[in-house]
Amino acid sequence: MAQRSPVQSPVRGGAMEAGKPEDAPPAVVTFFQPHVGGQVLVLFSLLSGSEAVLKRFLPKSHLSKVIIRDNISVQRVHDIKLKHIEESKRKMGNLFDQMMKKFVHDQQKKMNRWKKEYGHYQRMLEKIDQRAWLKAHTSTFALPELTKAKDVTGWKNVNLPQQNRLR
């Protein structure tokens, strides 16, 4: 349905009508119903429930669709960043575990080397202690028994005991 209204120039305050001949018909402005072109009718029974609800509430304007697409792309970028962060965390966790195992392994090697060296030095110290103990408990000089004998010198020679030596 079209509505008609005479056109007046907003600038001149109706000067256009003054310049028209008297026999010219008045100008006609027609307002048409908005055109819904390009939209395809889709049966909602073919869509799943969530898609049908989504289609019903999606905006029809181009700007709104651009904003929604932009939000979706931003969401994708966000998801990619989150995935990258989680992968980095996993890699760093694996690296930390590997470094911890290496550290523990190196410490065990160091302890084993120290135990081996300690055992060698401990045996040396035990030998030194044993020699010191033997020196303290056995005298190195034994006095001969002096007795009168029929010897020329008048003294009897007594055999000295053999000293135990550790080597």
Write the layout of secondary structure elements.
Elements: H1 15-18, H2 49-57, H3 62-137
Descriptive notes:
The protein has a domain at 15-34 and 59-137. Helices cover 53% and strands 0% of the residues. It has helices at 15-18, 49-57, 62-137. It is rod-shaped, with a radius of gyration of 57 Å. The protein starts with 14 loop residues before the first helix and ends in a 30-residue tail after the last helix. Residues 1-22 are annotated as: Disordered. It holds the Pfam family DUF5528.
Class computed from helices, strands and strand pairing: mainly alpha
Secondary-structure element pattern, one letter each? HHH
- Radius of gyration, rounded? 57 Å
Number of helices: 3
* 3D shape: rod-shaped
The biggest sheet amounts to: none
Distance between the termini: 129 Å
Give unreliable regions as ranges: none
Overall mean pLDDT score? 74
| Helix proportion | 40-55%
Strand content: under 5%
Number of strands: 0
Region (Disordered): 1-22
Features:
167 residues; 3 helices; mainly alpha; C5orf52
Summarize the structure.
This protein has helices at residues 15-18, 49-57, 62-137. It is an all-alpha fold and 167 residues long.
